[in-house]
Amino acid sequence: MPATLIGLVWLAFFIFRRWKFRKYLAILGFSLFVIFTNDFLANSFLKAYQSPPADLQQIKSRHYTYGVLLTGMTNTLKEPKDRVYFNQNADRLLQSIMLFEQGIIDTLYISGGGATALRKDLQESAVLLGYLKSINFPVARVKIEDQSRNTVESARLASDFIDKSRPLLLITSASHMPRAAGCFRKQGFQLTEYPTVYYTNDQLISPSMFLPSDDALFKWHTLFKEWMGYTAYWLAGYL
């Protein structure tokens, strides 16, 4: 990841004090710092990779039997357990609720386990179902799949719950959508993409975008994660 690369280069700079090419480590470390903390570059590259926003008017003109919501939006390890702790991906759930309330989807299908070897009660889809119950959401029209540990397993297990001839609306983060949509299409689903959680912005270029920013590091981190994930899935034949 970007922060790791910067740290390793500077660590090497301080360790190899007598290396004749040591000065190039300093140049490389400084260059990586400038690149990976530049919000203009990070914003531009992430925008180019992530899926663009769906046309909401076009989405509303159709009707979907299932809205498939991929998990990855809560901290299931946080105590106490009498509430749900959401992270920045909560937009996935908020958009799903909006789509359901507007009658665009019939059934909300939540896919994602995430349980650990020591805690079998941490399936995130079950946690989200409990949250929906707490806000009086009509959970009779919610189905959960709580065994998958990653995106490709979510796509495979969906075949046990969802008729592939039914129209499907896939809901996940914009940066995750290329990999997720590829996995579901590989399983034979005919789907429409509904990206959420945009870390990028569409503002005009401003001087602040060229100042060192931890937001830029986060965007690069997200992009590196998805680049590596997409490449690994492609090599494994999951896409």
Q: What's the helix and strand layout?
A:
Layout: H1 2-15, H2 22-36, H3 39-49, H4 56-60, E1 64-70, H5 91-101, E2 105-111, H6 124-134, E3 142-145, H7 151-158, E4 168-173, H8 177-186, E5 191-196, H9 214-236
Parallel strand pairs: 1-2, 1-4, 2-3, 4-5
Helix pairs in contact: 1-2, 3-9, 7-8
Keywords for this entry:
9 helices, alpha/beta, Rossmann fold
Describe this structure in words.
By secondary structure, this protein is an alpha/beta fold. The protein is 45% helix and 13% strand. The chain has helices at 2-15, 22-36, 39-49, 56-60, 91-101, 124-134, 151-158, 177-186, 214-236; strands at 64-70, 105-111, 142-145, 168-173, 191-196. The longest helix is centred in the last third of the chain and has 23 residues, at 214-236. The radius of gyration is 21 Å and the shape is elongated. Keywords: Membrane, Transmembrane, Transmembrane helix. It comes from Marivirga arenosa. This is YdcF family protein. The chain crosses the membrane at residues 24-46.
